[in-house]
Amino acid sequence: MVAVGSKCRTCRGSAIIDLPRHNANFCAEHFMELCRRQVVKAIDHFKMLTRDDRILVAVSGGKDSLAVWDLLLDLGYRADGLYVGLGIGEYSETSAVYARAFAEQRDLHLIEVKLRDDYGYDIPTAARATRRVPCSACGMSKRHIFDKAALDGGYTVLVTGHNLDDEAAVLFGNTLRWDVEYLARQLPVLEARAGFPRKVKPLVRLTERETAAWCIVRGIDYLVDECPMALGNKHLAYKSALNAIEETSPGSKAGFYFNFIDNMAPLLAGRALADGLELGACSNCGAPTTGNVCAFCHLAETASAHAPVPVELVMKKGRGKR
Amino acid sequence: MVAVGSKCRTCRGSAIIDLPRHNANFCAEHFMELCRRQVVKAIDHFKMLTRDDRILVAVSGGKDSLAVWDLLLDLGYRADGLYVGLGIGEYSETSAVYARAFAEQRDLHLIEVKLRDDYGYDIPTAARATRRVPCSACGMSKRHIFDKAALDGGYTVLVTGHNLDDEAAVLFGNTLRWDVEYLARQLPVLEARAGFPRKVKPLVRLTERETAAWCIVRGIDYLVDECPMALGNKHLAYKSALNAIEETSPGSKAGFYFNFIDNMAPLLAGRALADGLELGACSNCGAPTTGNVCAFCHLAETASAHAPVPVELVMKKGRGKR
């Protein structure tokens, strides 16, 4: 991770990580200090959280969600966790082990929702039943369950572990299509609206390499594997294109994301798709929807009526199509 | 370029090129037809040219500028050429040979301007004297000379050979920085303003692979080499990042550029840097400028006072810095 003999910028001690974007190397202690400072800066600058907030962290068992939960606790916030069992074979089973272990070791409250037990389907089956790409069915399911759990539990804010690489890649995808309605809502804070909790992303100033290093330095065990259903998706292609640029021009990725927030987002205010929509309540679950039944209930109905599909089958199909 | 046995989409004859973006293969004849159609579509859609225009084509001796000159003549337009000798060693000498040969073979009028003879400097010397990257000094010099030649010659429009890859890469660079003032002027047509001719880019619907194929099919000899001073610049890094995306999702590059034009450019209208500026006349050459002396005259003064620097020297320096 760092050249032998490199010194920490802060204390001149032995460095454990080089951060070309900051043009510096850091020892473990001062790397952690940098991470905390970046998270505090994001929280303060975007007015993400107050000490009075009741915080729910969406936890997957991966590095980002465990790092954000850990960082918030470390910074003195109180926060519960929410784990959604997506039923993606062994991947989901292992991810649950990591999420539970983190919570148990620290005596934290972890809410668990299991798609198969609570809604009668899982992501591989939903992908097959709806003939949508798995990431689409998965995103919709998680969003609905996050919203519902936050509102049902009386939480004032939902935290997700999206890091700078995630946000820059999503921004890149929306920019490649110049999808103005999506670009307009690409912000590190989404305010609460009727039926939706407030949502914030405290890790937007940290890269995924940095959140992984945070976990390693802090001794947090996390699921290293990417979701097997996401392999080869466009999001990963966008990340790798941005990484190629970042390598020749360190800081480009952060510039891309933060200059968007500073220069462009203000010009797009009010243009998000949701801004102009009149929302009613889903006749089935009460969630906000433009129709009679919300998209999640529609998905759950279709998917739960389908015979369970093992993840391997859907992956093979996906790969064949590419 | 195309799998053996591939058939032309139009005539089922033997194909010479595959175009994944159009999901089709073409024979030489119908490939040319496609190129003409794309250029006509760009000219019509963006109202670039009329038959009454007096057209000046900026010609470098490379594939794009010779292709656009050839295509315009092929489509029945009359157009003169303008070649600027940049003094980039053998590269410039060879490029001049190709530009002159094209014009002579077709009995066309080619205006020649030579930086060293007419302004007392060349690009390598300008880069060294101003300590700017060569592409910056080169771009500024060409823009000034293009503008002046078009206005002095009474031309109503200046044509450049920018292709889809060029435009998408410049757009990508400006987007990475979210440089709103530059994004706002990234259009295939720039209208005339006091001191500036109208400028149009008829090749925006063709990729560089397609303009190269046009030249090959038409028997046009062109300088294949990239400019030696541009090697390793960011523009080429942006092209390669977009090419990586294009490979997994054919059509992304065209979508990126044309969705920008359709969805975003209207939101940025009036935000270009030049839109708000009061321009006076350069006390030396009369060109529009915000100051007393225009940036070109300033560059020419500095560079012409400097002892000539051979291109190899500047290139070595550039490479060492990277």
Strand content of chain A: 5-15%
Chain oligomer state: homodimer
User: Count of DSSP E strands of chain A?
Assistant: 10
Category from helices, strands and their pairing of chain A = alpha/beta
- Which protein chains make the most extensive interface, counting residues with beta carbons within 8 Å of the other chain's beta carbons? A-B, 26 and 26 residues
Which architecture of chain A per CATH?
3-Layer(aba) Sandwich
| Order of strands in the sheet with most strands of chain A | 5-4-3-6-8-7
Low-confidence stretches of chain A: 317-322
Tell me what you see in this structure:
2 copies of one chain form a homodimer. Chain A has about 325 residues and is α/β, with parallel strands linked by helices. The first copy, chain A, has one domain: Rossmann fold (3-Layer(aba) Sandwich). The first copy, chain A, has 13 helices and 10 strands. The first copy, chain A, has helices spanning about 30-45, 65-75, 90-105, 115-120, 125-130, 135-150, 165-175, 180-185, 210-220, 235-250, 250-270, 295-305, 310-320, and strands at about 15-20, 25, 55-60, 80-85, 110-115, 155-160, 190, 200, 280, 290. A 6-stranded mixed sheet of chain A has the order 5-4-3-6-8-7, with helices on both faces. A two-stranded antiparallel sheet of chain A has the order 1-2. Chain A has a two-stranded antiparallel sheet with strand order 9-10. In chain A, strand 4 (about 80-85), helix 3 and strand 5 form a beta-alpha-beta unit. In chain A, helix 5 (about 125-130) crosses helix 6 and helix 5 (about 125-130) crosses helix 13 (about 310-320). Chain A is globular, with a radius of gyration of 20 Å. Mean pLDDT of chain A is about 95; it is low at about 315-320. The interface of A and B includes residues 179, 234, 249, 252 and 263 of A.
